[in-house]
Write a structure and sequence with these properties.
Layout: H1 24-27, E1 42-48, E2 53-60, E3 75-81, H2 86-100, E4 111-115, H3 119-125, H4 143-161, E5 164-173, H5 175-186, E6 193-197, H6 204-212, E7 218-225, H7 230-245, E8 250-257, H8 262-268, H9 270-277, H10 297-319, H11 327-334, H12 343-356, H13 362-373, H14 377-393, H15 397-406
Parallel strand pairs: 3-4, 3-5, 5-6, 6-7, 7-8
Antiparallel strand pairs: 1-2, 2-4
Length: 412
Amino acid sequence: MPLPIHDPLRRPKSALPLIALLAAGSLARPVHAQSAASPLWTRDSIYSNVLGETRFLRIALPAGYETREYAAEHYPVLIVLDATADIPFAAAVANARAMGGTNAPAIPRLLIVGVEASNSTRFRDNTLPSAEGKKRSDGGGGAPNFLRFLLTELRPYLSSRYRTLPLTVLSGHSLTAFFAEWAFGQAPHDLSGAIALSPTPLEPERVLDGIAARGTPGRLIVVTGTAEHGLDRAAQSFAAAVRARNVSGLVFEHERIADVSHDHTTSLGMIPGLRFIFRPLSLAAYQVEFEDGDANWLSTFTTAFDSTRWAYLRGARELGLPARLPLSFLASQSRFYQDSATAPLRLRLCQELITSYPSLWTGFECAGDAHMRLGRRAEAIVDYRRAIDAARACGDSATVDRLARKTPSESR
């Protein structure tokens, strides 16, 4: 069943498509040239005992991460390899924010971590040891150590400093896409998904053997451009070989972007890549359509919302994410219904907010507003007071004061 996007204007048979646009102004500037108030990312570093060196990171926090409303939220992690160039990494961050920050998000909000590399470490870290166990003369073969660094040093470091969920997705381009494919097969319990953008076709049998041996559900997408010719053909052969293995629990896709060359898949491929990984819980197609004069509009809304909720929770369980609709989705949808006629719709969303996020004031305030629209003054007062208690527990004195002014007195 397609997931039903809400049309707040209630136009008959209308749809509001989600369009993920690049933030062109932000993408054109490296982080040091942006406003200090809202950088796309910040620099960090970690010393690796496994690699014997310091590795530099780019940390992009999800939208709203530092606000009180989202203070209890935890986030999946997207690791972007070879994140040394400003524009491709900025494109990844901007597009992830665009797809995760809408009224009906296509993906969850993510903590995005770019791992920088130099020319020497890039080759060393993303190539496999000799199959015969011999030392490579070209300085390659460090992929197992690099994977150990990612899983046993970087990932615990991120969990200790940021509010993360276990779900981790690995993304790479070209040589690092080859590593992402290989690592996906080697770390079934640590990597839930991988995005391989124009992977270098090295040692496909070793990669395939690892994927076939995962034994754990996971999602892998390979993205190529039709203008890549040899790489695109190699990816088609690899995709056919993956499907021929019929790996249990593996969800695999090869997407070919028309008229795109190798240099452009690093930016353009991230959109279909992320959409594929998080497709089980995408809300990008959520839509409620009301016919003019529809006497059953409340039932229409309830059916659409409940079916969407059921599909989302099923997808969340599949990916190991919290079984509740996103806070941003519920809060934004509830604000669409402002008059007394649509107050019952708003109240349904408010109740979902309260059930899913009981420690936040948002749902209680929402319910109080809906009750006021319905003329239920006593119920509204109860909900506003519960909102005040929740805001006070969060230490948000400004919201406490605002809600106190908003709460009507018990006497008329």
